[in-house]
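Help! Submission page says 'invalid entity' but I think these are all valid:
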Amino acid sequence: MKGYGFIRSIALVAALSTATGLAQADTIRVLNWQGYGTDEDWSLEQFEKATGNTVAHEYFNSEQEMLTKLRTNPGTYDVVLVNSAYTQQAAREGLIQPLDLADFPHSDGLQPRLARNSNLLHDGKLFGVAWLWGVTSFAINTGAFDAKPNSIMELWNPAHAGRLGWRDDAVESCQFAALATGQDINDPSDYDLIRERLHALKPQIRTFWNSENEWNQYMASGEFDLATYWSGSAARSKNNFGLPIEFIVPREGAIAWLDGLSLPTDAPHPEAAKQFIDWMIDPEFYVQWDTEVGAPISANEKAVAQLPDGAFNKTLIEELKTVNTLPFMGPMSDATREKMLEVWQETKTFYQE
Amino acid sequence: MAVSDTKRSPTRRRQPSNAKSILGLTGPAYLWLIVTILLPLAAMFYFSFLSDVPLPGRDWQVTLSNYAAFFQEDFYRTLMLRSLRLGFEVALWCFLIGFPCAYVLAKTIKGRWREALFLMVIIPFWSNALIRVFSWTMVLRGNGILESLLDWLIPGFGSLRLMFTYEAVVIGLVHSYLPYMILTCYISLSTIDDDLIDAARSMGASRLTVLRRIILPLSMPGIVAGAVLIFVPVIGSFMEPRILGGREGTFLGTVIEDQFTSVFNWPLGAALSFILLACVLIIFAIFQPILRRAS
């Protein structure tokens, strides 16, 4: 497999060099979260060996910062990670350019519903290559449950009063309530229903968590029976920290998110950038990354299929096929975001009384 | 003659240079305050009247809606009252615990012991506030240090359930701000002449009367200064409530922090901050007669 990928990359480089007439090495600049796949040293070394291109990184700490960097530094970055909830906004502002999946040989393995996910499209054109995805749901402490629950209503089960961990995040809280009441998670219509569901959590919540590290500490010290969580983090908590937990995919569905890789409008090295994006969706890279470091689910079905049997993401993707709905976090207006914060703060005030 | 001359001449020479030396000595401090406090505060005050953060690519206009939001939503007022109550309670506990301590330091203990005890009051100040709060989480949490100790002393003591409660927030804040009360009370207590106390005792006043009629009134400036120093930061605190309060740790300070960090709504955050500031000023105005008499 390794040799095959290598030869294919060589062939790709050769084809590109004849096409452009020069085979020069470029340094491409990638804009991403720190430690999120693109900056694994072993992979970059292999990439340089295969293509001659080197990769430099710049990091952002929030989606807003990423957009600001694209706006204020045109012509600087070659590859940027854009969460699909922001792809349309970036495309509308002219920050990223349309793409053709034919330029990415490994895109043949991408799950169709992810590759042409409506959140990645703007004016009928594709603006991001689906790379990674995952779901937000909840995880249980296996010691506190006899059988694995399969409904989101378990969060409201009085049997777990005072044993629930909840992330102190307005959007996520409202989305959980929207999912439980069968509403659109990106634009709920009935906020009274959402408020009612969130108020009903009052006896349930032990405390709020804000980071993966906090979550691990609370779970390890036995504060939680169950807690909302992200699939990628659950894999790490279980495999790297050895916590006795199980990630639950409720039959009602889970909140899904999708990250895509995009090319900024004035990317100085577009060809090398496309090579790098293709490198990122290559199963070979993903299998090594997920096995040695831990990763979310690849959008490339072939990549997930190559994971060893019993791997967290391989099991998860099978479970996700059984759920009723899998709504993706999509673009959200400022008004919706502010409304959600208001509902959440009002709810937190109610928790005090 | 010669004596009075030497006394007068420096005063005459000092007169013209007085203004210059005042400017020279206070100028840097005030310049620093203007640049680092007043200008950013003025910018925040301006932000609080905008509909969005004034960045390129964003639409914004001047509006009063951020201030209106406070009066339209009941929960902001609930949180305001809760924050004020927290401020009062923490200041009260600091007084109840700190005043006796300051009294003993100022009146009973002398010499090297006093220095050693002072050091113990001040040492917590040398460590980072965040570290102190996280230490409290280890003490207060279920099966933590406090519960283990109590269980060892009284077998079968059970659980206190202190972590993630309002009480935990008060405990953490009292610990953080206690030194302010001890230091301000110590300063005003040490200026009370011991002869006054002896005189009162010799004229038959009980210890309680001495405390009520002499010590408390004379040390009032220190108590008030300490209470103000504690009250103002506590009502805006967000770090201690977030870490120790858990589900019960929502105050106006945490809501303001959310506006800045999680939704990027600086204008609303700024407006809430200035409403909090206005509340503090109103409270001080109401208590002005008492404060003035005290100091």
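Support: the input was valid. A stray whitespace character was the problem, and the output above is from the cleaned input. Residues 120 and 128 of chain A are 6 Å apart (CA to CA).
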